[in-house]
Design brief:
homodimer; alpha+beta; 3-stranded antiparallel β-sheet; globular; DNA-binding
DNA sequence: ACGTACTTTAGAATAATTCTATTGTGCGAA
DNA sequence: TTCGCACAATAGAATTATTCTAAAGTACGT
């Protein structure tokens, strides 16, 4: 997995330092994830990657800026980082504070406003909030 | 405006105390608003309503719980309270950190998942992020 | 090997929100 | 009306998440 982590970082214009390689390996292990910065700290630590909070935040931010990670913010200000960057939306289960992907092609949005005059739509995010009974 | 503020509070099962009346008057003045807790502090203060932070947060939370106010959380964890509780979505202008309403009937969402087994959809929120050039 | 610009780091700083413990108040009952 | 009490308001401390700072470390072109 090291090689692809390195390639990812280079592609993103990030110097492949040991911390970044470790974090990338933990994040991009082939399974989609929704993780908080804190989760990443623990995952890294469990994987033997020694890294500081500041670096975790820096790196997550850089990966987002590079489009390799997607930031998802929910009610209450909880911030998740989503390793699935394909077009898709989210379902949030209130009961257990869990976030789930919703395949991008399952939902269609029509009637987006025409903002005209040089304004560009950067993203359209849909969050479906669900409660079990 | 006092009367309707009092009616709103009673309808929500909240005792119409002087702070709540003041906050309700400031919030529900007939104009839709997107305000932060901090904005509310200042609005209240400008209106001569003396109220503490804790009470602002308590009251905003209670009004949300009662369905009189809608909480909108954006990237970066900024929390806005929306006095427009009719079905609608939002556009966020990245350039000036401003939130705008998008009439509920202008956008259609199709293909929402069937979650079956006693799960109910509590809300579907759409956030369109826009950048001007 | 060297120099430098980019990185990492610990810990402090900030910001937003919640908690705590005390004081105050609306309102029904006497 | 006054009383009592459950509910509410308050100041300030505490918590949580994130960013900043300044110093030490490291990748990499030359």
């Amino acid at each position: 997995m090291r090689e692809s982590a390195e390639r990812l970082l280079l592609k993103a214009g990030l110097r492949p330092t040991s911390q970044r390689l470790g974090l990338a390996a933990v994040l991009f292990d082939g399974h989609d994830k929704h993780v908080t910065a804190d989760d990443v700290m623990h995952l890294a630590s469990n994987a033997g990657v020694d890294v500081s909070v500041a670096t975790v935040y820096n790196t997550l931010g850089q990966l987002c800026a590079a489009g390799l990670l997607r930031r998802v913010t929910l009610d209450g200000g909880r911030t998740f980082f989503d390793t699935n960057i394909s077009a898709h939306h989210h379902v949030f289960f209130e009961d257990d504070d869990r976030l789930m992907d919703l395949p991008g092609d399952s939902i269609q949005v029509t009637g987006l406003p025409d903002l005209g005059d040089g304004a560009t739509i950067k993203s359209v995010d849909i969050l479906v909030r669900v409660e079990r009974r």
